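Appendix C reproduces, verbatim, an entry submitted by the partner laboratory led by Prof. M.T., so that reviewers can inspect both the input and the predicted structure.
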Amino acid sequence: MPHGTDARTPAGPPDPYPAFMTAPLPPFPMHVSVQEARTLLAALLPDRRTETLPLAQAAGRTLAGDLRALVSHPSATESALDGIAAREADTLGAAPHTPVRLHVTGESRAGVPFTGMVGAGECVRIYTGAPLPPGADAICPVEQLLDDGPDGVLLRRPASPGDVRHEGGDFRTGEVVMTAGLPLTAPRLALAAALGHPQVPVLAPLRVALLSTGDEVVPPGQPLTAGQVYDSNSVGLRAMLIEAGCEVIPLGHAPDSPEALQAAIDRAGGADVLLTSGGVSMGRYDFMRDLLIEQGRVSFWKVRMRPGGPAILGGWNGLPVFGLPGNPVSSLVVFHVIVRPALTGQPPQTLRLRAATPFRALPDKTAFWRASIQDGRVSDYGQQGSGILRSLSEAGALVIVPEGQPVAAGDDVDVILL
């Protein structure tokens, strides 16, 4: 019997731990910062294609070029309210007990302006958005007027130049009003229409292939056996990708097998990036990690953050691959703070709020603790485990606690809304 062999222990399969687990650190960055992870992922993404869409189809897209005003707005000096247009000098001294009488010579309404001149002691009835007649320089609101015969009106206060909207006060013809990179929200689309544009250049959506992994993962609706869980990651990640304006290429699920994973990855043709969940940590069966390190290309492995530290970025035959952790909270938090900003070019929106409770710091990681907001103050949600998916639904916010910088009750903190 060879030396060191225990006759009671039958020969088993080879140890699935890859060689790098016991070798010196590999030649790629380990434990990068959150910002470094965003930057490295963004650098691997292809240049964005552009397309032109009608305004009605551009909601949620990103503007791909500057927009200049094709017209001025307002296109003419106009009234901001209903009332009369007059010369301010003729109305000075008007008060409830000493009203000033003016002679009404006509009216101006939107689309049908008054064509004459307002002379001394005269006025024109005017309506919101109507052009200010020549000679007039002020407006008195209808609430301060009393009729005085068929062609007269009494002013109970002076007319005000402040109720006049001047031509081009919003924007002028030729002015760059919207710049490339803006997300096209409803107000911005309305502004694009006001500028005179029936269509806009936008970034084409990134095509993201999505793959969930793990022997324990089962589609919702099927019966579970011991140790199995429903596949919440693919559902949550798909929704977040759609919210980020991406086109999702669903690859389904792959079990913990190098062959199955490789076959699934090879189905991602046409994608701009592959997003996976699971198989990237320190376990014996984290084969997604093994494939990238041993046969692909790795840009980094592990991020200095919690939850979500064991994320990996690499490439497979020219396709960028970002491997998210399998724990559902870790997966969704990493997407929110790293992947989505890289895909959209927009950092997470943060608020500065007062902490109602303390938040602990980690010595070597940025913490993103789940928190609740009430009355403008933020409180520790309590349950911070990576498997407590319910917490992301109920907490509604992540408090950012930098490495080694604990937050005391009463401190101001940066908060990401979920």
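The CA atoms of residues 281 and 310 lie 5 Å apart. Additional entries are available on request from the coordinating office.
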